[in-house]
Amino acid sequence: MRFKFLVHWLPLALSLVALPFALAGFYLIVTQEDPVVYEQGALDSQEAADVAARALEQAEANNDTADTILGLLEGGSVLLTIIVGVVAFVFTLNLRDLRSDLEGEAEANQAKVDSELKFRAEQMNNALSAREAELRQLTTELTSLGEESRRRVEELTSMITQRLDEARQLAENSFRVLSLQLLAEQQVRARNYDSAISMLLEAHELEPENQTTNYLLGYLYTAQRKFETALDYLETAHRVAPNFAPAQAAIGLAQRRLGDQQTDVDRRNRLWAEAEVNLSKALAMDHALLDGDGESYYGTLGGLYRRQGRYDDAVRAYERAVEVTPSSSYPVGNLAVLYKFTGRDEEAREKFARVERIVESIIEDSPGDYWARFDLAQALLVQGKTDQAFLQYDEIIARKPPVSAFRAAISALQFLAQSPQSVDRLDEAIAMLERTAAKLESTA
Question: pTM, whole model, 2 decimals?
Answer without folding.
Answer: 0.62
